[in-house]
């Protein structure tokens, strides 16, 4: 396609430098575009008040999918870095103030700079009316209990171990995680099966490296699904193959058809609580997908996304317990506590574990790993989860009540679990337009379309509403203001 002169200017302005993602390959396009826009604003190439091109035009100019652009714009608007107004597009906030200096932003400055004028980085507060998915309750991070675990770890560690970081993880952490998963997720796991990671994305990077070393070139993925893990697979040279999801979880018949068509023998799934549709994989499909993995000597990557939070019954057992030789169980503290802890685990079959280039990957610090072991073995993790389940159960009920009152007749889907629900929008109301307008009202929401793995998936105008980090005191206000936005666009 021949591009016009003005279009070429945007190519120059937004240099999508490949960068890197923790050494695992090129950074995802969304992250690269976000960084490019920030750099353009910081450097003054996009001055205050400057408008950005429509998402479709910028996507065409840069040769990326429109989703990459809309997701990037949405994130930057939610942070207050950009602003969006219905009918006026997306632009840099006017008024002469640096976009990094709204009242909700803290700058961390260099310790050796006496004037405090050299920012090392900037941290963004979540919006007050936070209906964004995937974020736990940051007001209830167990700071004191974690600090106690760190102190106990410091007391417990022998001097010699302050220089050692085991390639698979500290034995105390691996043992604690194995015991925890055995009793809470009914996994079949021994300490030797556990690899301690920096989180789900780090665990996924190790798994796909092992798959690539074993000759895999394709990975079956849920459609829609969280994009980050798909991007990690693609960066490693493994092509994501979308498979549709419905109210019973991933369509296993469609998965088998896609596997036969592409030769894929590995699949990434969220059986306990699918993101974003909120389904649980039905018992019949659980059996069918395990049978497929055994038949083809394949591998299932089980992302244990917010599996601890089920409100109508006990959390269902991990799929890994049905076929430990064919399932990798990936988990972390990101949804149960907070992403900032940077700790997770991957339970790997021995054959895969031996192929993962673990020597090339940095493990979390020994101190953090032993603190994790202390946190689990003293029961602090499970005490925190019990309290969180109670909060989220009550918050979900309050959210559904408010939605029924303010938006009667609109369907809310997803099982009673996790930290999000899906709100179907009225005919003719575009989810992307609602998300942009809501950001202007200090409301963070997410568009279901942004999680599509395939452009051929039917476009469903729905919002993914998170309530993990939504203050109980503002639930009614958040829903009322969101309802006003939706009515204004209907």
UniProtKB/TrEMBL annotation:
**Superkingdom, taxonomy of origin:** Bacteria
HTH gntR-type domain segment(s): 27-95
Q: Name one GO molecular function term.
A: DNA-binding transcription factor activity
UniProt entry tagged with the keyword DNA-binding: yes
One Pfam family, please name it: GntR
Note the SUPFAM superfamilies from the entry: PLP-dependent transferases, Winged helix' DNA-binding domain
InterPro entries documented for this protein: Aminotransferase_I/II_large, HTH_trans_reg/aminotransferase, PyrdxlP-dep_Trfase, PyrdxlP-dep_Trfase_major, Tscrpt_reg_HTH_GntR, WH-like_DNA-bd_sf, WH_DNA-bd_sf
Q: Which family does the UniProt entry place this protein in?
A: In the C-terminal section; belongs to the class-I pyridoxal-phosphate-dependent aminotransferase family.
Membrane spanning stretches:
none
Q: Keywords on this record?
A: Aminotransferase, DNA-binding, Pyridoxal phosphate, Transcription, Transcription regulation, Transferase
Q: What is this protein called?
A: PLP-dependent aminotransferase family protein
């Amino acid at each position: 396609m021949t591009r016009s002169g003005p279009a070429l200017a945007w190519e120059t302005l937004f240099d999508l430098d490949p960068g890197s993602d923790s050494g695992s390959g090129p950074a995802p396009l969304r992250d690269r575009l976000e960084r490019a826009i920030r750099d353009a604003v910081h450097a003054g190439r996009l001055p205050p008040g400057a408008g950005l091109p429509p998402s479709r035009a910028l996507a065409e100019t840069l040769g990326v999918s429109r989703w990459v652009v809309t997701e990037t714009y949405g994130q930057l608007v939610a942070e207050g870095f950009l602003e969006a107004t219905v009918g006026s597009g997306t632009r840099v906030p006017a008024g002469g103030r640096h976009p990094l200096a709204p009242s909700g932003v803290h700058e961390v400055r260099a310790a050796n700079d006496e004037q405090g004028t050299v920012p090392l980085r900037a941290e963004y507060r979540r919006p007050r009316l936070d209906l964004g998915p995937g974020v736990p309750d940051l007001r209830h991070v167990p700071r004191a209990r974690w600090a106690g675990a760190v102190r106990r770890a410091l007391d417990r560690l022998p001097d010699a171990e302050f220089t050692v970081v085991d390639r698979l993880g500290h034995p105390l952490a691996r043992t604690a995680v194995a015991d925890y998963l055995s009793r809470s997720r009914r996994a079949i796991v021994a300490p030797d099966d556990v690899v301690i990671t920096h989180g789900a994305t780090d665990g996924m990077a190790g798994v796909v490296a092992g798959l690539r070393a074993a000759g895999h070139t394709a990975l079956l993925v849920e459609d829609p699904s969280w994009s980050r893990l798909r991007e990690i697979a693609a960066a490693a040279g493994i092509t994501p193959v979308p498979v549709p999801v419905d109210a019973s979880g991933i369509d296993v018949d469609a998965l088998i058809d896609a596997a036969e068509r592409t030769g894929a023998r590995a699949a990434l799934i969220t059986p306990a609580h699918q993101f974003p549709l909120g389904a649980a994989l039905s018992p019949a499909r659980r059996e069918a997908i395990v049978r497929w993995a055994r038949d083809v000597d394949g591998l299932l990557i089980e992302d244990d996304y917010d599996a601890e939070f089920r409100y109508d019954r006990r959390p269902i057992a991990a799929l890994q317990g049905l076929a430990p030789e064919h399932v990798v169980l990936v988990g972390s503290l990101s949804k149960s506590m907070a992403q900032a802890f940077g700790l997770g685990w991957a339970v790997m079959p021995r054959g895969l574990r031996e192929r993962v280039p673990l020597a090339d990957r940095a493990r979390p610090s020994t101190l953090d790993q032993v603190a994790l072991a202390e946190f689990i073995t003293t029961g602090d993790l499970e005490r925190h989860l019990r309290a969180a389940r109670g909060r989220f159960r009550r918050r979900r009920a309050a959210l559904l009540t408010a939605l029924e009152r303010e938006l009667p007749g609109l369907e809310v889907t997803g099982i009673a679990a996790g930290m999000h629900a899906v709100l179907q929008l009225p005919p003719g109301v575009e989810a992307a337009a609602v998300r942009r307008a809501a950001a202007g009202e200090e409301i963070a929401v997410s568009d279901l379309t942004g999680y599509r793995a395939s452009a051929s998936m039917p476009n469903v105008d729905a919002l993914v509403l998170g309530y993990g980090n939504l203050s109980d005191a503002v639930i009614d206000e958040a829903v009322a203001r969101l309802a006003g936005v939706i009515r204004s666009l209907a």
